[in-house]
Amino acid sequence: MKAHWLLGAALALFPATVQAQKYDERPATLVPATEGFNYERRIVEIPMRDGVKLHTIILIPKGAHDAGIVMTRTPYSADGMTGKGGNNADLASSITGYDNATDVIVEGGYIRVVQDVRGKYGSQGIAMMNPPLHDTALNPTHTDDSTDTYDTIDWLVKHLPESNRKVGIMGISYDGFLSLMPLIDPHPALVVAVPENPMVDGWRGDDWFHNGAFRLGIDYIWEQIATRDNSSPYARTTYDEYDSAMRAGSAGALAKAHGLDQIGFWRKLSAHPAYDSFWQAQAMDQVLARYPLKVPVMLVHGLWDQEDIYGATAVYRALKPKDTAGNMVYLTMGPWYHGQQIDEGSALGDIKWEQDTAKWWRRTVLAPFLAHYLKGTPMDVAPVTAFQSGTNQWQRLPGWSAQPAMTKLFLQPGDAVGFAPAPATAPVQTADYVSDPAHPVTNVARPVRPVGYEDNHWKAWLVGDQRVVSSRPDVLTFTGPALTQAVTIAGQPVVHLTAATSGTDSDWVVKLIDVYPDQVPSDPKMGGYQLAVGMDIFRGRYREGLDHAVAVKPGVPLAYSWALPHANHVFLPGHRIMVQVQSSWFPLYDRNPQSFVPNIFFAKPADYVKATQQVTVSGPDQSYIALPVVP
Hints:
Layout: H1 2-12, E1 39-47, E2 53-61, E3 67-74, H2 78-81, H3 91-94, H4 102-107, E4 111-116, H5 145-159, E5 163-172, H6 174-180, E6 190-196, E7 209-210, E8 213-214, H7 220-226, H8 241-248, H9 251-257, H10 264-271, H11 277-280, H12 284-288, E9 297-302, H13 311-319, E10 329-334, E11 347-348, E12 351-352, H14 357-375, E13 384-388, E14 393-397, E15 407-412, E16 416-418, E17 429-435, H15 467-470, E18 476-479, E19 487-491, E20 494-501, E21 507-515, E22 530-539, E23 558-563, E24 567-571, E25 576-582, E26 611-618, E27 624-627, E28 629-630
Parallel strand pairs: 3-4, 3-5, 5-6, 6-9, 9-10, 10-13
Antiparallel strand pairs: 1-2, 2-4, 7-8, 11-12, 13-14, 15-16, 15-27, 17-26, 18-25, 19-24, 19-28, 20-23, 20-26, 20-27, 21-22, 21-25
Helix pairs in contact: 8-9
């Protein structure tokens, strides 16, 4: 009886129907307090012409009236770029960080607008990497980033009474691409654009390839395209990224191991290793060349941009001929890594500029440029503002890329380099080395750490001391004598390499280097420093045409030609000019197997073979670099 009584008492404590909790001390929607804020934060889901709504953050300075609008569109989180929830009472503090020229925006009193693009973070729709133009074979929908920008601006000027209905768009990297797209069919209220370090041509020299060589080592990009919120699917398997890339073998095998073969853009990318219509149709310099120029634009270029060193100057070349009055297309060339112009700019790696170049540019060039178009104030901004490294001085120039007469810098026997060719009667000589894919030349010293880690080399690797590889037997190093007078270059050096390989495919990497004097008393560690002024890679299979691959004839000297990045540099007296040649640059670029395969993305382990490389250094086909020397 006692047991039955206890069981009944226990059951009485638990009613047959358990009532759900109805009371909650938290409000359904918490309205944040704004006491002490110097701005108002508005969150709007702006409808596009097809009904898709894009998540948009609008920051309006307190008391704003007749204010211009500075807009950025991004796949990197509008909430994150504007204070991550609006819990900071200070506008400057809320927009300090990526893609915010904070001092210019705040001091200019502008309304700040940041919007998530389709399919990213808070925005509806389907995400695409650099969506091509609407109603085309590559994008059959009726919308793209040009139409979305148009619809967004149309909403802003109709719903922000605090504005003067003038809008400027600016952004870095992918956001720079998004600042170019509106130029195709600009809204009448779009009065100025500042594309900074924009993604323009992913095959020729921006994020994905350089002249056909795949950029294997920028794995953080996969994190951005794989998921809506950029959460990383890229699991780290080694401390040194060199190890994981080598163990995988090909780029395709590495992608599959990390699950990236599930991504639509990866499948497109790996199916188009050559510069075919897929890439050409998306190249923004070629796209914009087909449209009239209606909006004043300032293109911002980093002379040592490790991500998008091709795009800004390519668009400048495409648009400048349309600027018949000379007041529509401007260019800035600063001594910066990717996006450093909104950061601190007194140095890049070990190279010191003797001034905060980024702050100077923002105050002297960017601020008056935006104010002129968004406020109507006068400006005194040169058509081209270019930093000259070596002298470390800013220049005001009337234009850029009007190449001076090119001067040939020859590779010479005895590991020398100079402006005199070998005598016409000199026998043909070569400088030889063995390139082994099993032991590739690295782009930085190991361990190679991922982007985003404090010990990674990513921001400043382009100015890194090239002595890290100059003594390797598979790197040719040609050095000139100490200069007795300055040599100034302004433009784009062009490589003319005559070389043979025992393989049926090959990569060629050429570096133009400024070698510091053996001793630099003011900064001893710079003694003998090898500063790359310009360097780039070319995949040999595209020698006969970038749009198709052809096997290289083994043992036959062939001519290869490609341009290095733009340079504005002075080789000072006492310095020496150096040229390095090599056949791998790993793990930044995937390894060439050196035997011809249809698609290097899917090369097999047996395809990777050693090759003997021979670079011609005398005779009628002597290798040289054409330098844009300024008299």
